[in-house]
Design brief:
alpha/beta; Rossmann fold; six-stranded mixed beta sheet
């Protein structure tokens, strides 16, 4: 479903601020893979997601989604293949619109998007069923303004909107990092249910090593723009945070210096 072939990206080339963010990165995902991604600050995690999404072009290499080379496609054209949820719960929804209106816009993605014809009873029933999977009671609040929801509720709604049309690839960029632990756990539970139900191919960046171990069928660790560790199956299930810290030191030759991740 995803082939990342030796991509590289350098920012501010030829200046004192030159930074090689991706360095020959190689990653291949089968359909239905749910991959969690960890790494220290500046490891290239978000740069990789932005490269996949087309936020910027890579300097070298190629990106292929479901057999289609998207390396030189602009961001708005790649959006047809992708669902994406960002760290900030406020960015994925329209606060001035109702829950059902937000869902209608997401459902009509790729079509002429306006609400002039209104939301049909059939659509409303469908949205209620979709919202039930979040287990937040939002199916009974379709006409509530999204601006009145909590951060966790908005992030769960954003997740649902990003997956309504079953994207080829779902990108989750630390989508629970801005939430309190209890709310983050509920959003992760909803993530597992939606990804599992639709067998979505998913990449989830997280700063929380326990979450990286507990979710998904595969885990990769990044360092200096490359993948230095890739584990799946039973081996992944047996991992501990101590194992990951040891693996990082073994492969990178240095201590893991991201306090935020260690404390999480």
């Amino acid at each position: 479903m995803l082939d990342i072939n030796r991509i590289s990206k350098t920012f501010n080339k030829g200046t004192v601020n030159e930074k090689k963010a991706l360095n020959g990165l190689e990653l291949h995902l089968k359909e239905g893979d749910f991959v969690t991604v960890i790494g220290g600050n500046g490891a290239g995690k978000s740069t990789m997601l932005n490269a996949i999404a087309g936020t910027w072009y890579v300097d070298e290499g190629s990106i292929v989604i479901d057999g289609i080379d998207v390396t030189r496609l602009p961001e708005h054209k790649r959006a047809a293949y992708l669902g994406r949820v960002f760290q900030d719960p406020m960015t994925g929804t329209a606060a001035s619109m109702q829950i059902e209106e937000n869902l209608a816009l997401a459902a009509r993605r790729g079509k002429r998007r306006n609400l002039r014809v209104g939301i049909t009873a059939k659509e409303r029933d469908s949205y209620k069923e979709q919202l039930k999977i979040l287990e937040l009671g939002l199916e009974n609040r379709l006409t509530t303004g999204v601006g009145l929801l909590s951060g966790g509720q908005r992030q769960a709604l954003t997740l649902l909107m990003a997956t309504l049309q079953k994207p080829k690839l779902l990108l989750l960029d630390e989508h629970t990092a801005a939430l309190d632990p209890k709310t983050a756990a509920k959003v992760l539970e909803a993530t597992d249910r939606i990804v599992g139900r639709d067998a979505l191919t998913t990449i989830m960046i997280t700063h929380n090593m326990k979450d990286a171990i507990a979710h998904g069928n595969r885990l990769v660790m990044m360092h200096e723009g490359q993948i230095i560790y890739d584990v799946s199956g039973e081996e992944k299930k047996r991992l501990t945070v101590a194992d990951l810290l040891h693996k990082f030191e073994e492969v990178s030759g240095g201590e893991f210096a991201n306090d935020r991740m260690i404390l999480a």
